[in-house]
Amino acid sequence: MAHYKPKGEKETKDLKTQPRRSSIPEDMNLRDMMRDMMKEVYRMQEKQDILQKMVQEQMSDMRKEWKEDLGEMKKEMNQIQEDLRELRSEKKELRKIQETTQKEIKEILERNRKMERKQEELEAKEMEFQLRLRNIVEEPREDIRLTVVEILSNLLGCTEREMEEQMDRTYRVNTIYAKKNKTPRDVIVHLTRKVIRDEILKINNRKQIYFKEKKVAILKEQPSSVINRRRKYTPLTDELKKRKIKFKWEREEGLMATFRERKYWITTEEGAKEFLRKIKSEKGKDREEEEHENNEREKKKKRLREFSPDKEEMEERANQLKYIKQDYFQNANKPGRWLARRLRKKREATVVTKLKEADKIYTQEEEIRNNFAKFYKKLYQDEQINKERITEYIGQCNIQRISEEQREELNKEITEGEIIKAIKSMKTNKAPGPDGLTAIYYKTFQNEITPYLKKIMSEIRQQKKMPSTWKEANICLIHKENSDPENVKNYRPISLLNVDYKIFSNVIAERFKRFLKDWVKEDQTGFLPDRHQKENVRTVIDLIEYYEINNQKEVMLLALDAEKAFDNVNWNFVKMLIKEMDIGYYCQNIIEAIYEKQETKIIINGQETNKIKIEKGTRQGCPLSPLIFILTLEILLNEIRKEKELKGATIQGKEYKVRAYADDLICIIEEPLKKLTKWMETINKFGEVAGFKINMDKTKAITKNITKKNQERIKEKWNIQVSTKINYLGIIITPKNLQLLENNYTKKWKEIKKELEAWGKLNLSLLGRVASVKMNILPKMIFLFQNLPIIRNQKIINGWKRDLMKYIWQGKKARINYKNMIEEKNKGGLAMVDLKLYFEASALAWFRDWAKMEKDKILTLEGIGLRSGWHSYIWYEKEKKEKNFGNHFVRSAILKIWMKYKSRLCNKIPLWLSPLEAVQRREMGWRRWPRYKELVEKKEGEWKLKSQQEMHKIDKNISWFQYWQVKEKFTKDKSFGFAEGETFWDKIMISGKKIIAKIYKKLLEWDTERENTKKYQEKWSKNIGREIRKEEWEEIWRKKLKYTCAIDLKENWIKMAHRWYWTPKKLGKCYKNVNTKCWKCGEREGTLFHIWWTCKEAEKYWGKIRKRLQEMLEIRIPLKPEIFLLGITDQKFGKNKDKLLFLMTTAARICFAKRWKEKRIPEEEEWIIRIMEIRNMDRLTYLLSKNKGEAIRETDWSQITNYLNKEYGK
């Protein structure tokens, strides 16, 4: 490496040999250099500071300038923004004004349209009974009514007196036509019956009438709005009349014309002009007819091919048309969703367009969603109730712990059998949860899914690990009827849960039902097996009767309204409650897993809100939810029962304080002025820890034996509405039971009559109308019958029957005997409901409790004031001596019905009768009474009473005195005889389900038993020339009518069998001068059997049908009327061919019936098309049922298809 050598310096020598020299001058030089350098540095630094100051000054000046510029820019921007805001607000205001104006205009236009339509409907309805007579010579001082009577009586062939009875008003009117043509003024005639008007028009079409040698025209009346609409079609109609082309006015708008055997619908003025040009531009009729005839065969083939798609196309169409034609074919006019949609007013999905909160109104979608989200977020937020308070309250309640058996039942391992049962119970038409999987999916793959579900459920049971998807839900809102839709509180939240979670909760719910049935007392009747809400209503009505007698006692019936009862249940209360009950480790795990960290989204107008945490409440839509609620509420009910200061009704040692149906509570409060404070404290104390809140605005009460002054004091002190009536569980209850009939039955029937009037305009078939009564009206009436069996006079029921028959027959004369209508379908009836028999069945179901004597608490209350036991009135007719029995509002009505059927239900002494209860119920007050079944035995063909020792083993309470009383009764009853074997009523006594339906069926059987051989059956036997056996009719009713699910096919057979159709002979009996000759041949008298079978035109028709059927089915079919008209065959063709024959002959009858009053018979092509429609719909039904996992037996149409392909081409 080279070393640095300063200039002028000599080369250094070796340091070891070089002597040391002094370094002071060098140091001095260095210091000077350093000093100079430092000076230079300072100088440069000063210069830099000066420059820096200059830069800073310049920068500060620039900043000032920038700030000033920016300030000015900000001011300008603010001004611009302010201007924009003003413009936006003005725009919004203008838009709102515009929208409001448009809405008002639309509303006004809509109202105008509605009024016009209403006016038109009213005019049309009125004009259905009117005729216009034109060109009747006008005379001075004429009596136009007598003139018209003379003209019309001559036309109809009746006496002038008969014609005058059918007329209402007659007067002349000025018309433009009369002024223009200088003719007499027209005459308007109002008739009393529409059928008379129709008959006059019909006869006038065939026969011209003259008055004083001048032709008189008889015209239909039309509303002025209709006439104005039709004027724009005048050029077209004039041309059509000139060319004698048939046309028909459409009801709403336009007309339908038949030209060259084709139908044209003209609904606009432009369309009318175009069609007019078309018919005018035709060159010649003959040439077109010739071309038409030449191509007729090809057209037929083409039309038939449209009805013959191949199997792949059919399967594709099954998915596309499943809710269109097939839905009508399978479901039309029968009880179900199709009919429900027709009957109900079109109910749109809950769409929220506006919300109000205090003085603010929200109309924007986002604002509405935010408001709902805010409300439910607050609703489901934990109220932070102190756990120590909950623990303290539950500890004070002394809650009964469950038994070992119950604990074992609740905690046992979940089995695959339970899961499969839950899956099968799921309804397929329910909306799915957030995952989108429906019940059909789980039903289809239940065998594959069940093991996985069991594994998940076991993890929840053992480790409290629940899938996160099971904690999610979508809440859809249903608006509460008769409430303000703009209030967020007036919507019921229904949780759409995932189906797999619902399967799990269903399994747990079934276990809880069995447990709660014993744990929850009889005062709570909601959601538990063998408990009914009617028991609550029954208790209230009986209590009103009790306080009517004991009018010295003051009482208040307080109907509590719980605010969002299910949504406010406190989770901590539920968890601590089940822990206190010692419900078991595994069951506790399940409940704690369910009620932990739930989430939901609210669906508003089809859009979801953000997720909302749920921290309280039981989800409405979960099968377990109502059971958890009644478990929680039972704590309050127990506190009410235990608290001695809470005074209710006490009758023969039994207390009646409260009745509940889930959250619908009614409290029976004696001495309310003294005791009501304690009642409210008890309820509020429970509510503070359990989340049970009372809505005082909706809580109502009725009082009995309390002065108006005291009622006012109650209202002021406790803010409780004291009303003259309350709605409890759908029944209007008043302080006097005399008003029950008016407030419930009369009011309900007024609503039903309005519905019947609306349904009458829906164009339902006969069976559709029958089904509508059964589906919509019967449940409403049975609800009243079950709760209020108080009808004593049959007049009201007869009035209902008249209204129903008027609806069924559309105000016309019935064509089927009433007894035949109410009979069951498998006996040839229409299964029309008989409200009288249903009422009697409901009353007998109520009476059943008197006979069974199990509901001791209710029977004690209902039997108040009676001196003997229930069985003394049931069997020994004690009520004849003790008139007090009939003073009760319910007892007398029920006993009357029992006495009506007593001899039929029990023609001998029944073994369920208790002779001891009949004489000693009031004295002994036992809960269990020995019956004849236990007290007697049959030895050597003779009934004998057991000894006193044997009776003592049965019941230790039976002493020698009771034995003597039983013996005395037995001696008398023995002569009457005891019932042997199990009777119908014995079965009802032990039955648990569908009691009213079973009793109704038996009453119906007795009511129609005289109709074993119906008149229509006798007439058919006479026509055919042989007796049609009962077995042949039953084969149709029970087997062949089930070949199809289509109501219109079944209805055709029913109409045929019941000889529905009006014939010339029948019309001749109703009206004079009616031609009674056959409409087809015009030669012989037109009876039903002649037109359908013996007429030469009908013979041709059925001959063709028979020939084709034999070719299609490759069987020999006799030409017998019972086969083609009734479907009765004595040959065995095999099930599939028999089914095809029945369906195809039905198609032939439908075609014939469509041309009933026409001279010509149906074309063969019409029949073939109808068969193909039935075939296609039958196959679609099979494919859809198969897709749903509900496969039905497939009909083999291959023979028919092959024949038609061969005959008409593919």
From TrEMBL:
Signal peptide start and end residues: none
Indicate the segments annotated as coiled coil, or none if absent.
56-139
InterPro entries given in the database record: DNA/RNA_pol_sf, RT_dom
Q: Could you identify this protein by its name?
A: Reverse transcriptase domain-containing protein
Q: In which residue ranges is the amino acid composition biased (Basic and acidic residues)?
A: 1-17
Domain Reverse transcriptase, first and last residues per copy: 459-733
Q: Which UniProt keywords apply?
A: Coiled coil
Q: According to the UniProt record, where is the region Disordered? A: 1-27, 282-311
Which Pfam families does the annotation name?
RVT_1
Organism for this UniProt entry? Anolis carolinensis
Q: Which domain of life is it from?
A: Eukaryota
